[in-house]
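Please think about what follows:
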Amino acid sequence: MSLDQREEETTTTVPAPPCGELKDGDQYFLWTEVKKFVPCDGHRSVVARGSAGSDKHYLLVPTDRVTGIECECIQGGYDYWQEARRLIPFLFRPPSPVNPEQIGLGINSLHNRKQEQLHIHIAQFLPAAQLTLRNNESNIPYNAWNEWTNGKAVVPIITKEDSTKYRQYRVIRTDQNTSNLNLFAALKQYVNHNMADQTLILIPRVGGGWYVLNSEPDLGGGTGTCDHLLLYT
């Protein structure tokens, strides 16, 4: 399934009620496309290309009706992050132009997304972001989720659009195996800010494990989008 570059287009439609409804129709393009792959019980997902013909940018999309990161239902049950991580070696196997070790994941806030169906971006990360995180490891808590909002855990990282501009991110280092941790639930429990304002990003750590990044506009110099750190073309 291809999005035919709809993800790059700004929507002017009014979002559906929280988490949406199964009957939501054609104004929700991504959901309309996903419905073609149902019947499913909501505990599965499909992969879509981020733009027509792209082999560098994919989206993991639930077959359940879930509008986005603000939905409480994704804080338990099926782990979409684990599924997205599992897909990386498959989606970027040879002859892919991108090495799986160069792939990160991200989700936008309600106010920064352009489709009203939850989707996790699977794409190459900005190399400078991983380098910055490596250089700041001494200040990044390791599996200490209760320190996620610690001021030391905030790391400034340049944007792909302008190497002179920075955005601030709360960062945690975590193990390769995070299968027992729902990252949406962790974000709600340990950051505990308005979920609709949050972005969440995963960048692999050299040597194993992941950096888990979170930001929001209310974090001084923060952002509600993962797009600054992921390369879609």
Summary: The chain has a mean pLDDT of 87. The CA atoms of residues 160 and 170 lie 18 Å apart. The first strand starts at residue 45 and ends at 49.
